Amino acid sequence: MRNPFLAGKNIYLRPLEEKDLQGNYVSWLNNEEVSRYNSHNTFPYSYSEGRKYIKQSSKTKDKIVLAIVLTGKNLHIGNIALQNIDPVNRSGELTILLGEKDYWHKGYSKEAALLILKHGFDELNLNRIYCGTSSKNIAMQKLAVSLGMIEEGRRRKAFFKDREYADIVEYGILSSEFDAPKRK
């Protein structure tokens, strides 16, 4: 394990590093299937944009951006973040990108999300963690529900991609509702 911040059974989370750009990171954001529901809206996404994002992310206090790394292979397979951290209202937004398609639907996103939710509630003392996703992103909706998140609302036609609008479905979980051991 290289510089782990949070460690699970199959993956660990560590700060993003500029050398992550030498792997597949940039190609994930230029891959239509991987970034289909991503809101970065920059195509093509470049190495310099990635470098700027990593530097900016490491300096801000309102977000924690981490690489999702397979423990046995030390392979960077995606990113996860708690962003828009609000210390007054004690809330933060969960975002996740699993870039390596070979590792989709194998439980790695859930394991990473449970680690960062636990950190958000136990270490950052957040009261609420939320996420929003396109109504077409069924995988993220299933992940949110499996984490114990509750659908809180819908922003109608708030996401524009591929020349059409989709609703954004909002999910949230409170500290009092989260029980990491039961979510495994």
UniProtKB/TrEMBL annotation:
<dbReference type="Pfam" id="PF13302">
    <property type="entry name" value="Acetyltransf_3"/>
</dbReference>
<dbReference type="InterPro" id="IPR016181">
    <property type="entry name" value="Acyl_CoA_acyltransferase"/>
</dbReference>
<dbReference type="GO" id="GO:0016747">
    <property type="term" value="F:acyltransferase activity, transferring groups other than amino-acyl groups"/>
</dbReference>
<dbReference type="InterPro" id="IPR000182">
    <property type="entry name" value="GNAT_dom"/>
</dbReference>
<protein>
    <recommendedName>
        <fullName>N-acetyltransferase domain-containing protein</fullName>
    </recommendedName>
</protein>
<feature type="domain" description="N-acetyltransferase">
    <location>
        <begin position="11"/>
        <end position="170"/>
    </location>
</feature>
